[in-house]
Batch of 2 targets.
Target 1
Amino acid sequence: MNLTKVLMTSTALTLAAGMSHGQEMADEMTIVSWGGAYSNSQIKAYSEPYAANTGVKIINDESSAEAVAKLRAMNEAGNVTWDVVDVTAADSFRLCDEGLAMEIDFDEQLAPGDDGSTPSDDFGDTLINDCFIPQIVFSTTFGYRTDLVGDTPPTEICDIFDTDAYPGKRSLEKRPIGNMEWALLCDGVAKDEIYDVLETAEGQEQALAKLDTIKDDVVWWSAGADTPQLLADGEVIMGSTYNGRLFSVIAEQDQPVEMLWDGQMFDLDGWIIPAGLSDERKARALDYVKFATDTKRLADQSKYIAYGPARASSAPLVDKHAELGIDMAPHMPTDPANSKNVFVFNYEFWADYRDDVDAKFQAWLVK
Amino acid sequence: MSEAPTAQTASSHAAEARIADAAHTGPMLAADGTPLKKSLNRALRVQKMRALALVAPLLIFVLVTFIAPIADMLFRSVENDIVSETLPRTTTMLAEWDAKSTDIPPEPVFEALYKDMFFAAEAKLHTRLGSRLNYELTGTSSLFRKSGRKVEDMGEVYQDQFEVQNDFWKTGENWNSFMASDAWLAAMADWKPADGRQPAFELRDGIASTLPATSAAYVQYADFIQNVDEKNLYKTDPWAVIYSSLHEDLTGENDLAAYSGPASAELSAAATAAATFETVNFTEAFAGIDKDWTTLEVWQTIKVYSPKFTSGYFLNAVDMQKSVDGAEMRPENQQIYGILFWRTMVMSMAITLSCILLGYPVAWILANLPTRQANLLMILVLLPFWTSLLVRTSAWKVMLQQQGVINDTLVWLGIVGTDDRLALINNQTGTIIAMTHILLPFMILPMYSVMQTIQPTYLRAAKSLGATNWTAFWRVYFPQSIPGIGAGSILVFILAIGYYITPAIVGGTSGTFISNRIAYHISQSLNWGLGAALGAILLAAVLLLYYAYDKIVGIDNVKLG
């Protein structure tokens, strides 16, 4: 063993200190994520350094879109083959409720912030249930074609409902989440009352009635890549998608597209560790997650993709894009200039109402 | 190979017996004297066994990997034991509550709920039940999540008072001394963690009749500590729910006076003290967590879904719902599955029909060209067959969208104006076009192989007898090609109604199928029961149509070549 290796291993051990210290750990792990640019950012920022430090063999799986169903099937079969899974906050609720994800003791099992804050302080409001280890803040927001919206580009969220000023198709996600909130907001409901209104059948009707005004002008998307494609092809003049996708359309592909940050819907993405892993695999998964969600690593990820780190202590470390060299801070959904008017996705509400509202939304769609 | 001679011998015996029969009357005998029938059966049985042995690997494979999983999945459409397993006491108590009454269930039901929730929360099963019931009543998910967190403190008042009354109640060792059998206590005294599993807890004789609620709770608690938590039961101090059960036993009717086992002195002292204990009103305690617990709807839902099997999923799958008054239609703004089933059937038929119209001439040309050219054309038919489904579907997206190839060409030709480009995608048209293309080979191949067997001489004979080209085709050729159309149609139709990737990509909102909803319930909402019910209905519809086809056209008429 040469000196560098010894040094690297000892660094890794220091980073991986705590409960996992000295415990047997598996030397192979499967990490599940969404694929594409997002997975690449994770591999660059977390997995490659981690593998270099520890010598663990990391297998990347791109099944996050079906994570909930697959984890349940694995759990029922008694053979969980995944070690760490990247899921959205909403999915983490379901997994945690179903007992498919392990509960985490955040202060014990995660790394403290660089500024000395405890994990629970540092993550703050992003800790939304007992299983979910937050990683990034992303937003679902709108992008528009600068050449197709006329001389006065849209500046506020309700412009999507204004088919007179902005004639043409717009793309919206084929699910109620987000759309219902925007519809109510633009139908004159105060922002802090939206979820109270949406709890009632009348409120849901009201939102659908508002969406009905633009139903004929909507192309519905179901994959995050749809809207960037539709915008690039000129199929739609504006559309909602994840802000990181729009960033790559604008900054990397140089399309005539601009962001409409107003009314963006904040959401979280993070890790869960499946329930029912063997002790060695669990120790390895916890060790990886502890490493991957420390202050430095979370800030590193933003060099590769325009999503904000979930830790407060990571925010000052957000730097330039690793390849394009542009300053990333103005492209973050959390940037003060972008987050003047934001929604915070109400996880608890949607965990309860998702099935019911979705049934109504789909019934409305097919009519 | 070893049995082969037997069959041969048997058949030669049969031949001899036939000759012998010419001379004798009575039952035909084989050469060895056994009746011919028996001998022949024996030979055939061996053959059948051999055939069965040959197909056995595939048969077992299909059973294990195909039939069994499907049966298991379909079974979920009626399975509903989660409610009665998670809330056993509550569902039993609810049996006496009239769901149509306007009063919420009485206090004992809430007390039962407290106990059930306590155990469920320790085992982290309450949220699972919450998400199950949330499919039926929105809001149950968070109601259960919230209640699970708070239920632990609900009965603590009893624990505190018992522990103040006597230090005896504080430790698990003391509890075990009178709850557990002597045999178990002895076994436990010798047990060391290195020995592996703890001896399973045994209740002391007679304690169950003296302290019924406490015993039941203690057994459940002991089972959890020993088998799930894997802690040493001997040294673990009981949960709050045990104390509230003890309070219930001691203040209720009991024959404590007749009990003379260990801790009888402590128990009777506690019984005297318990009469004056501060009590908990569980109805109010649950209402304090969430006022929803005092609404009728929550209790009606629990009651309606108490049985181990439910028709609820199937009712949901046909836009109905299960309520206290039986099955009723859902409100109109939630009816979706009927429309989707109907649309799936109609569009699949449209796709099948367009496949026939497009595929028939192609198959005819293929069958009538010389082999060399036919083979070349065949590759063109098969080429898309070998391309990934996603690639083909995405290619259609590029072709059909409003700024796409087809619309651009039409605009360039001046057939349509720039502002009224055709909507060819994200609607039914898109689904029909893309799926017709994808399923076309399944139509052409069976047609082609049937048409190849049609003798060209028949057509020539018809014409030589004076038939026009059309009459010769319609009266002679077409009837002979029907088996190919039948086979192709069945293949295409059955594949079409199960498709979901293509409709999801090009179907927009009006071109999606029932399978898209099944996929949603399997992978997003995790409502596998409803997904299974929808799947079962789809399967039944296919079988029904297959049966109808057999009755009308006859399945013997279907030929793949």
Note: The CA atoms of residues 142 and 240 of chain A lie 4 Å apart.
Target 2
Amino acid sequence: MTAVELPLRTNVAKTHQLFSTSLALGSLKQSFVMLRPDIQWQNPVMFVVEVGAVLTLAFIVRAALGGAGASFSLGYFVALDVWLWLTVLFANFATAFAEERGRAQAAFLRRTRVSTPACRLRADGTKEEVSSVQLRPGDRVVVAAGEVIPGDGEVIDGVASVDESAITGESAPVIREAGGDRSGVTGGTMVMSDQIVIRVVAGYGESFLDRMIALVEGAVRQRTPNEIALTLVLTAFSLIFLIVVIPLWPMAFNAEQYMTSYLGLSAPLTSLGTDVPTLVALLVCLIPTTIGALLAAIGIAGMDRALRANIIAKSGQAVETAGDVDTVLLDKTGTITLGARLASEFLPLQGVHVRDLMTAAALASVADRTPEGQSIVAIALRSGVPDAVKTAPEHAKFIEFSAQTRMSGIDFADGRRIRKGAPDAVAAYLHALGTPTPTDVDNLIAKAAAEGATPLVVADGTRALGVVVLKDTLKPNIETRIAQMRRMGLRTVMITGDNRLTAATIARRAGVDDFLPEATPEAKLAFLRQEQTDGKLVAMMGDGTNDAPALAQADVGLAMNAGTQAAKEAGNMVDLDSDPTKLIEVVAIGKELLMTRGALTTFSIANDVAKYFAIIPALFAGTLPWLKAIDVMHLHSPTSAILSAVIFNAIIIPLLIPVALKGVRYRPMGADALLRRNLLVWGLGGVIVPFVGIKLIDMIMVTLHLVA
Amino acid sequence: MWTLPILLLVVTILLSIPLSRYFAIVMEGSLKVPGFLRWFERRLDSGPQDWKQYTVSLLIFNAMLFIFGFIVLCLQPIAPLNPLGRGILAPSTIFNTVISFMTNTNLQHYSGDQHLSNFSQIFFILPNMFLSASVGFCALTAIIRLFRGERLIGNYFVDMWRVAVYIYLPAALIIGVIFMHEGMPMTYDTQQTVTTLEPGSMGTDDHGQAKPQNIIVGPVAAVIPIKMLGTNGGGFYGMNSAHPLENPTAVSNFVTTFAMMIFPFTLVLMYGRMLQRVRHSVVIYTVMLTMMVGLIAWAVYWDTLSPNPAFTGTAQARDYQIGDASSPGGKHAIAVPAVGSLPVDQHLGNLEGKELRFGTSAGAVFAAITTDVTCGAVNAEHDSLNPIASISPFIGMWLNCVFGGKGVGMINLLLFLIVGVFLAGQMVGRSPEYLGRKVGAREMKLAMIALLVHPIMILGPAGLYAATDWGVKAESNPGAHGFSQIVYQYSSASANNGSAFDGLGVTYGFNNNPSPSPEAVPLDIGTGLVMLFSRYLPIIAPIAMAFYLGRKKMAPVSLGTMRDDTATFGFLLLGTIVIIGALLFLPVAALGPLAEHLGPIPFGG
């Protein structure tokens, strides 16, 4: 196995800047709008912060109006409140920014969805000019070369090359034709050659892509089950810390009372421990604001990352599920192997020179435009067969391959006839000429079949010359990609219509874990269901209408955009590039989404340890000054300690926005190694980083004389 | 010094391995028992139950236990076996005691030898200790079966029978015989009158004759084995395991300590065996053991190997300034002068409140273990531990899963585990899963509810009582130490531990006591309610959680699955417990033991 590590992302067609001024300004405005309690409420953790900020504000107003309770400088409370508001705004900004980016991405796709003129066919076959806006499902439209396809539909007549760069970013045109699995066309793409008739399947603004764009824009973004569960846990953690902080007031009061009497003071002592804004600050520092702020952004960014890979996910849940996939079903043809079988070996019979076999085979294939035939010619030329075979001899007659004869060949003017074709067809041909097929041929055929290859027998006149072996050719690097999937913990299963022997050979060469030979759509569906019954989550890719049931059944069904409408409706993701190896990317994106969420949650909770060491001594500096001993950071003063913790808590949010948007990188390295790595980085790192950060902030504030 | 804890751990670990196999056999119902026991079992079997029926049976059984306990304690003045004519306890104390023994807490706001008759000891204390200890055991068994994906999880009453009769009874008999051999009383008598060795040590009577000493005795050897084995901790005598008749020798002390550890240790391995995930349970076991070793070492180091700070004084003078509105300049200076140490030989560490018959480290070791496994028996005065050493028993109760009580300790650990898996497990790039099953919102909701109860029940009441006369008037020492006493009382109640820091005036005594502790009634009721809430919610919610998790499809293990039987997972679990535990309880630790340790001497002491 080669040690080559392929990048998980093969084609990021559209590179966008992470940050742009217009995006930022729009998000900034949105962050203020989101302060509205009914919107803020959707994020319970940040709602708690907002309530705390309002409470502190009320306290400041009361203190400024000369009310009781201001035993510390007003500047401290104002600074505290400003940072509390900033915490909420940073959180809103993170969400708004992710949404804006998704929207920008969607707008890019939407640019293709403008109104265009369309040529609609009336029932009687006459044409009429209408706007694409007026198209209804079922309408038939004619699109000629140079025209824009007015809406999503299926080709019902004709073949055309279509430029789909508007949605895929891929400049090479693709073929779309009536019938078969390449009949789907997308509105906004352009016909480059020929003319096709399309049956429109979606009205204006309701097409498949339109609905998906809406999803991406977040207009109908639904929280995934994992996100709901995490929100619940974060809310519970907020509640837990509320439980920790509220009893601190009476406990601090108890300390104030006994210290007053212990020191014999006339006036009761006060400490920050009974100061409500400070306790609010403690609460805000403890509740998981970091992940609470970034949670929505992580989810949106996940879908956005999928979109950047030219995959449109119907829901965030689909992306998330991709991370959990256990089994990947891969179609052999087009995914693991190149579409056609190519000549790999020439096996002459006893007494026949290999050169003669090659020449005869090449001559028989000159007019054969199939990849199989072309590969025979190409290899023959490479092996030294004279170029002359390329040009057809005069007066020669070519015999085209047909499904009936299953042979192709050439008839020379001099009566020489060369044939190549399926062994039984050639045998029948020779038998008709009165020549029995030599037993040697059967041996060669058996040998080729044993390797899973397809044998073709070549006959010159009445004499069999030998066998040409056609083999499936693996796509470049496919072994590496499959090995990569294995390291990701995925079980790869190859689906093929070939017989078991052929399938086994290719499976072995490609390195897949399992294969399903002689697969019919029903067998495929049954296999999929069996895997699911065993508790596995299955991903598959498909394009044809007969794939639709399996795509719908699969946990991750990735439909190719070039595929039929039925396939696209059945799957829960659509690959705009129609690239069959995209599943790896989909799985990686799903895993990154989950990892990012886990990493930032762990980081957020681990952060709290350091904040305690800053805040607890500060809370009781007025009553139990010796608790300063647990202030390992040696912070300047009680108020600077609390402010430093609050500031750290706030600015860590914007600092982590890039991580939330880009995602924690997934490395195919096995779960245990991955966990160890992430625990060290985000868990241990989460414990250590705030100690450094809080100390730094404290030092900066002291240097700038910002704190007393 | 270290011999005792090391020997204890080694013996317990070695014995827990074969015992866990026996436990699993018993709970799977495949133990071959004599026909008459089988006959009883069949009488109890009301048919297989689903999780709801099982839980309801558990609750009904406990409600019956409550009523039964109330009746027995109320009958004490008129019941037999009461030659000393013990009266009825104060109603609030009965309430507290009945809940205490029903919830396996065994917090004692009374003194067994002073306030209970042998009737109450035999018909209330003894059966409650067997039965309440079996409840947690059954709850864990139910959870295991639910995790296995079973819908019908056996019969609660049959399980109770199996635990009590096939596990506790034989074990208690063996331990009881050892105790009797060591000199523990086992009699229906109530007191022995003896002439003291030192004449007049009990005072003299009207004729100038030296008074004899009345020594309370009773069926001690029947009560004490199950008190330890069931991690109950409710002593026959008020002084608990420090009493010479409740813990006569160093050997009995060893057996006593071992007996409270063995079943919690074994249950973790039973969990693995019954789920056929032995390696996973070994990881959990190791995590728990690591914490226990740490807590024992902490207690021994700071108590047995460190002098009592009250005698050593302060070598250097310290100055502190605190804001004080009434002082000139708004600052009040606190000067802590250097204090010379007292001429006390302290090479044996802090000896205050220790029972030296068992060895110098026995008290610290016992204090750490009894709180880890929620036993609550004590053989030394926790109030007299060095303040910094007392953090060890506090942590044991706060985490409540350092082996913990039988069954419930493991259940508590599962809560931390689920939270850890949920938070950090996603870092492998898969939805969080435990035992191959995806952990979703509903499971997390139930786990968080169960996890919330413990801190609420400790911090809430501790705050309330610390700020009001209910707590402040009951403290024996003002300040940080008194605060520790209050926090300890509620930690012990909420952890269903039952040990006491002591020093808090919690005893009302008999109903006709003319001068009870002033705040005994609010403390009786407060801790009673805490024990009640902290017992059942953290049992019911995890059972429901196990049901919802268990009915999910089990995904096969692949390279991408987070392994739950590796060292990495162990660190994840340990990290989760330590961080969440620290976040919940660091403030009270700072206000109590840490403030006392760091403050001047004498301060609050």
Note: Strands of chain B lie at 191-194, 213-216, 318-323, 331-336, 433-434, 437-438.
